[in-house]
Amino acid sequence: MNTPHTSIDAARLSFLLNELRLPAIKTLWPRFAETADKEGWPAARFLAAIAEHELAERDRRRIERHLAEGKLLPGKTLETFAFDAVPMISKAQVMALAAADAWLEKGANLLLFGPPGGGKSHLASAIGLALIENGHRVLFTRTTDLVQKLQAARRDLALEAAINRLDRFDLLILDDLAYVTKDQAETSVLFELISARYERRSLLITANQPFGEWGKVFPDPAMTLAAVDRLVHHAIIFEMNVESYRRRHALERKRGPGRPASQATPANLAEAELAE
Fold it and tell me: Is the same domain home to 28 and 148?
């Protein structure tokens, strides 16, 4: 049974741990202290044990915060990505990019090109998730949504501040770049974002159209050339020219059980789409 002196010490210790912002140690120390007393732990072992739990809890809370702010696509992980359906993508290379941060430190970019439904958004979000789990800050956003926010900031004479706030993210994922409206005001804020992060902070961009079609995104040819130049200067480019997952799944549903698998062709793809 605790003596009054012990109770006072516990209350004082709880206060001190609050002041030091050590919530995990505040919660765990009585249990660890009891174990240490029973097993005769040296003081150093007791201190190391509770310190390790505090650090682990801080890591967990940080990852939770970063996941909440990252706005990644739900359920999109590297484990659920069908690498076998995208044979031109090296799984080993993707895993290395997700696990290492050398390319982020250099402000390098990752560009994913391919037709709709080929898994670009899934892969981009999955890489973002792995990086968050490894301690980095990532934001996933549709390009059009971010552009609209930056336009609003420009109208409020706060564009520079808005772009600077994005610096806290080690990686900014711009999904569906090609869907930006070909409007000078919209594309100019996008260009300013690309220029501001150049060689400082990394971008991951998904796009349905190759660089040769980016005149549809940036109406000014000089701006198109300058944007592409900045993006590719330090970039890893993945070409994901594969059959759409959605089309393939539509074909499988139409084929039904027990029928042999077949290679998709333009004819049967069109037939499946018309039947949807």
Answer: no
Whether residue 126 is found in the same domain as residue 194: yes
Query: Per residue, what are the HEC states of 166-215?
Result: HHHCCEEEEECHHHCCCCHHHHHHHHHHHHHHCCCCEEEEEECCCHHHHH
- Looking up tokens 């499946």, which residue turns up? 272
Same domain, residue pair 221 and 253: no
pLDDT digits (tens, 9 = 90+) for 171-185: 999 999 876 666 677
Work out the average pLDDT over 135-145. 95
203, 127 Cβ separation under 8 angstroms: no
Q: How many CB atoms lie within 10 A of CB 82?
A: 12
Residues 206 and 80 in one domain: yes
